[in-house]
Amino acid sequence: MKNGVLEQLAQFACEWIPEKAAFAVAADGHYIHLDQRGLDIPLVTGHPVTPGDIAHRVLETGRRAEERLSFPEQDSSYYGIGYPVEIDSLPGAVIVLLPEERKMEKSAPIRYLTGRTDEDWVPVSVSRITHIESADKKTWFYADGEEFASTRTLKQLEAELPGSFLRVHRSYLINTDFISRIRKDDFTSGLLITTSDGSEIPVSQTHAPTLRKVLGF
């Protein structure tokens, strides 16, 4: 694994992971990076990923996962949240580890998202939303051919929306229920999604493996 990739991941993780939380990076069946950040995590670089644990689930499915994480050699346990990444063209996982007492209750996915159009606030069922976009430091979501402004960020919505929503680009979340076609973009050689309303959404190289794994192609 290239050190530069790990350094970028570590820098990124330090910016958004809470102070009293460790994080690990896994790829190719083992842990390739660990930052304990004051916690006593019984892992070392090179430690194999255990089948069935959160890192294994993320690597196998390419999707975000969260669960209690325990280690046989230690009495204490942790709450883990795993995110899929790509490292040197291989599926990888970033795992955030919180002390078990810091685990927060998992809330149910939101059912409605309220957006603004002109001077009105409109509650929209998330089942009608085709995709969500971050542009010009604002968040926009689209439903039934209409555009709505939201006060939430993509990062917040990614955690709050049901599993049918998938991050496909740093600027886009898409509702997989409304994907009508996926093709290769002739200009970028990447993937391009066409939604049922005719919108075209680019898929970044970072998120393409997850999209392929979730949709099975």
Describe what is shown at a glance.
The protein is α+β, with helices and mostly antiparallel strands. Helices cover 17% and strands 43% of the residues. It contains 4 helices and 15 strands.
Provide a descriptive summary of the structure in words.
The chain has 217 residues and is α+β, with helices and mostly antiparallel strands. It contains four helices and 15 strands. The strands form four sheets. Strands 2-1-5-4-3 form a five-stranded antiparallel sheet, with helices on both faces. The chain has a five-stranded antiparallel sheet with strand order 10-9-8-12-11. The longest helix is centred in the N-terminal third of the chain and has 14 residues, at 3-16.
